[in-house]
């Protein structure tokens, strides 16, 4: 039975953010667990199994088992095509922006899902919800994510970004320009990834994030 994308969006839109973050983490952990099993079963004494390919296949299986699978053809009908960058295809539907991430900058699905939970912890105003996995059978698998759309926004300036990051407890390293707070390191916090709405509020819609401890 084909996954009902519109139904999924409606059901999940009112969920609690902490529960959603927990769900995303559980999916990432399950993908890692299944990858280990896949590598054991398909290694046949080889020195290694391609981890990315293993993760793709177990993600497809997991998605189909849990009603989280969307054909890529259907995924590209999710909304009106929006601006797409190096790693995301975007689609807009009413007050929501959907992103299909191609994983180019993340090294895999589980790593991306980890980054999403970090983003949601640091920047809850631009919280990401995980919707489903999209792909064609036996081929590339990409996650579909959604955020609230920041309407009538403009790119924030570097000064506004620095001020905002300081206000939420991050210090900027003068050597590399990255932001740190003792737990996370955040980079690529630049005007194309940070918006200011008409009221002057700042929204980090995308950033690179890693945990330091």
Give an overview of the whole structure.
The protein has 213 residues and is of the alpha+beta class. The protein folds into two domains: 5-148, no CATH class; 154-211. Helix content is 36%, strand content 24%. It has helices at 5-12, 17-42, 51-65, 72-75, 109-122, 158-167, and strands at 69-71, 80-81, 88-93, 96-101, 129-135, 141-148, 154-155, 171-172, 179-180, 184-187, 194-196, 202-204, 208-211. The strands form three sheets. Strands 1-5-6-4-3-2 form a six-stranded mixed beta sheet. Helix 2 (17-42) crosses helix 3 (51-65) and helix 2 packs antiparallel against helix 5 (109-122). The radius of gyration is 18 Å and the shape is globular. The termini are far apart. The relative contact order is 0.14. Residues 6-14 have low confidence and may be disordered.
The ordered H/E elements are HHHEHEEEHEEEHEEEEEE
Q: How far apart, in Å, are the first and last alpha carbons?
A: 43 Å
What oligomeric arrangement do these chains adopt? Answer: single chain
Number of helices: 6
Number of domains: 2
DSSP strand (E) fraction? Answer: 15-25%
Radius of gyration: 18 Å
Low-confidence regions: 6-14
Strand order, main sheet: write it out: 1-5-6-4-3-2
Tally of extended strands?
13
- Secondary-structure-derived class: alpha+beta
Give a short account of the largest sheet.
6 strands, mixed
Shape: globular
Could you report the average pLDDT, rounded to the nearest whole number? 90
User: What share of the residues lie within helices?
Assistant: 25-40%
């Amino acid at each position: 039975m084909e996954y009902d994308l519109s139904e999924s969006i409606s059901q999940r839109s009112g969920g609690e953010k902490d529960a959603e973050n927990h769900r995303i983490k559980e999916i990432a952990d399950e993908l890692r667990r299944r990858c280990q099993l896949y590598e054991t079963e398909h290694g046949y004494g080889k020195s290694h199994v391609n981890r990315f390919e293993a993760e793709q296949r177990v993600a497809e299986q997991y998605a189909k088992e849990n009603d989280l699978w969307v054909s890529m053809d259907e995924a590209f009908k999710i909304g009106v095509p929006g601006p797409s960058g190096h790693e995301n295809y975007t689609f807009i539907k009413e007050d929501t922006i959907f992103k299909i991430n191609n994983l180019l900058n993340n090294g895999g699905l589980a790593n991306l899902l980890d980054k999403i939970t970090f983003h949601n912890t640091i920047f809850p105003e631009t919280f990401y919800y995980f919707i489903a996995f999209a792909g064609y059978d036996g081929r590339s698998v990409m996650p579909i994510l959604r955020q609230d759309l920041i309407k009538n926004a403009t790119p924030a300036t570097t000064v506004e970004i620095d001020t905002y990051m300081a206000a939420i407890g991050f210090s900027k390293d003068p050597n590399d320009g990255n932001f740190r707070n003792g737990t996370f390191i955040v980079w690529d916090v630049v005007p194309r990834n940070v918006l200011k709405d008409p009221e002057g509020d700042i929204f980090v819609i995308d950033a690179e994030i890693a945990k330091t401890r």
